[in-house]
Amino acid sequence: MIVVLVLNAGLLLAQEEQDTVKAYTVSEEQQAEQFYNRGVTAFENGDLETAVQMFDKALDFKRAFPEALYNRGAVKFEQKKYSAAIQDYDKVIMLEPKAKAHYSRGLAKLQLEDESGAITDFQEAVKLDENHGEAYYYMGSIHFRNEDYDKAVDAYTKAINADPDYAFAYNDRGSAFRMKGEYRTALSDYQKAASLNPSSAFIYSNMGSVKKELEDYQGALTDYSSAIGLDSSNAMYWNNRGTVYYAMRKYKEAINDYNRAVELEPEYAPAFNNRGNAFYKLKNYQQAVADYDKAIKLDPEYGYAYMNRGITKEMLRQPEQACKDWSKALSLGVKSVEAYIQSQCY
């Protein structure tokens, strides 16, 4: 009996020690959460490599962890590892087919130029969340890039319906209307975008462009000047304002703006071409040719620069060179030179 009691006592003692150890053991679920939280902190601090390592460890303890998979995919997206990001989003969607995962996967596919796959994901996103304005917005962007402006307008409108304060959607819908030739509707959208986001220079530039189309040159000058005031380092804004001065026959003012454009961006071929046009109007033909030469050197496929150089060379009594330039312009698709060729080159 004494032996039995001693054995039982030993067994009881061993059991008590085992329970004591278990009480201080962190569960795998808790460890996964701890590594996940560290990953989120690293991600927020911009330490992408550490973030991936922490999410990896979280997933070692808990494979079916959609939040860790999603965030690891987001980190890989930031690292421009788009295929790897898609693999993580695939796993998330298998576990939890939510709108944000489809949307993020669509963005990654878009970076890989898989527009069809991106559209499919964005469509899935809006099925799961009809108020997912960003998914509608990027669908509109794809349609715009493919020159399907009606579909672009429809998608941007849905983005705006989902988020009435979506400034970029108003701006881009305005651009789609502009491409359709509906300038006043475009202007209305640009104005709304500017009211929602008054610090975006490109919105004022877009307004200036559409006002120029409407021959509201003073309004266009005001808008381009606003764009320059917000971002004076953008060569395109200076070039565009120069085109308005040119349309107003203020050629010296135009040249000043073109000068600033090429100072900011020495390889900006349109500014050289446009400055050449202004010098032509001032009858400074040699300087005009020099600018057209520069535009063509920067962009050998610049058909209008060949056309303009040909016109200027004809004024310089260089008919053979003029015809050569016009023929080159025609080969590059500039149909308007046909009249010059017919009248001057045969």
Structural write-up:
The chain has 346 residues and is mainly alpha-helical. 79% of the residues lie in helices and 0% in strands. The protein contains 20 helices and no strands. The radius of gyration is 32 Å and the shape is elongated. The N and C termini lie far apart (129 Å). 45% of the residues are buried. Residues 1-24 have low confidence and may be disordered.
SSE layout:
Elements: H1 2-23, H2 28-44, H3 48-61, H4 66-78, H5 82-95, H6 99-111, H7 115-128, H8 133-145, H9 149-162, H10 167-179, H11 183-196, H12 201-213, H13 217-230, H14 235-247, H15 251-264, H16 269-281, H17 285-298, H18 303-315, H19 319-331, H20 338-344
Helix pairs in contact: 2-3, 2-4, 3-4, 4-5, 5-6, 6-7, 7-8, 8-9, 8-10, 9-10, 10-11, 11-12, 12-13, 12-14, 13-14, 14-15, 14-16, 15-16, 16-17, 16-18, 17-18, 18-19, 19-20
How many helices? The count is 20
Q: Show unreliable segments.
A: 1-24
Helix-strand makeup class = mainly alpha
The amount of beta strand, in percent, is: under 5%
Q: Helical percent range?
A: over 70%
Rounded to an integer in angstroms, the radius of gyration calculated over CA atoms is: 32 Å
Mean pLDDT: 92
Distance from first to last alpha carbon: 129 Å
Number of DSSP-assigned strands: 0
Major sheet, described briefly? none
What form results from the Cα inertia axes? elongated
How would you sum up this structure in a few lines?
The chain has 346 residues and is mainly alpha-helical.
Core attributes:
about 350 residues, mainly alpha, 20 helices, about 80% helix, elongated
